[in-house]
Amino acid sequence: MARKLHEEAGLAFFECFINTPLEVCESRDPKGLYKKARRGEIKGFTGIDQSYEEPVNCELVIRSGEMSVDECVQSVISLLQQRVCQPVCLSVCLSVCTLSLSLSLTLVCVFHFALPTFLQF
Q1: Domains of the chain: total
Q2: pTM of the prediction?
Q3: What is the pLDDT of residues 62-100, one digit of tens each?
Q4: Domain coverage including residue 97
Q5: What is the 3-state secondary structure (H, E, C) of the chain?
């Protein structure tokens, strides 16, 4: 739905799939939500007792369990350079349209890039 709304408005849209193994998500969980879900204290927790469907038409897949933070950031910057323009020209407003923190296997982030009027296509 977000993709369609952006296309209808003539805005650039890029879906970024942050693909992270369950073990990595659990190791990075500062609130202990995965432990609670495994003990049955949280029901419907994606990756524990609820399945998750990976997105299919992503412009970018970031494997954060295999990449450093710098490499992850660089892959987003590279996508923008390839699809939009040079970073000097960008007026980027990263507003997270879709972010589900409860996903255990992955995080899906959909970024909306607001470009200067003269750069919109």
Answers
A1: 1
A2: 0.60
A3: 999 999 999 999 999 999 888 876 444 443 333 332 333
A4: 2-119
A5: CHHHHHHHCCCCEEEEEEECCHHHHHHCCCCCHHHHHHCCCCCCCECCCECCCCCCCCCEEECCCCCCHHHHHHHHHHHHHHHCCCHHHCCCCCEEEEECCCCCCEEEEEEECCCCHHHCC
